[in-house]
Write a structure and sequence with these properties.
Layout (H helix, E strand, L loop, with lengths): L4 H29 L5 H13 L4 H8 L3 H13 L3 E6 L2 E9 L1 H21 L5 H18 L12
Antiparallel strand pairs: 1-2
């Protein structure tokens, strides 16, 4: 299927607006977790909340940064008291990163605020429209998912 250029241009424009608005909202909500928290750091916290303790290398792969960059981000989050290091059960030389209780509580608070925001944004939509939007967005995200540009894995 080939779409006309006007449709593609309109879709691209709306996508850019969506990404900008979501990034700005995420930045505001992330600052509710901690005033010094950056958007990228909030994504790490949300990933840890969803997936549980992870090796730093896996987190670096998830957000697409290098080992030194993830190390600095994790150090900052640790200094804020939002994450902690624990030994990896399968390798005494490695460690995992997990949320502290304060980190978990803050991420949940932001999650509640995000859901309230979505509820406000979609408040005038019919239930069927919301379900269709969610299904189409999931379909799009599934087709947009590609393997990472570099091989991820290893010790952290």
């Amino acid at each position: 299927m080939t779409l006309d250029e006007e449709t593609i241009t309109g879709l691209e424009r709306e996508f850019a607006v969506f990404v900008r608005q979501d990034r700005a909202a995420l930045g505001r909500l992330g600052r509710e977790v901690h005033p010094d928290l950056k958007v990228a750091a909030y994504r790490l916290l949300a990933h840890l909340a969803e997936r549980g303790p992870r090796r730093p290398t896996e987190l670096a792969c998830h957000v697409g940064v290098t080992a030194p960059t993830i190390s600095r981000q994790l150090q900052h989050l640790e200094e804020l008291g939002l994450i902690e290091r624990v030994g990896a059960p399968d390798d005494g030389r490695a460690y995992l990163v997990q949320l502290t209780e304060a980190g978990r509580r803050r991420v949940e608070e932001v999650g509640v605020a995000r859901r309230r925001r979505l509820d406000r944004l979609l408040g005038s939509w019919a239930d069927a429209e919301i379900r269709a939007f969610a299904e189409l967005l999931a379909k799009f995200n599934g087709s947009a998912a590609t393997p990472p540009p570099r091989r991820c894995g290893g010790d952290g």
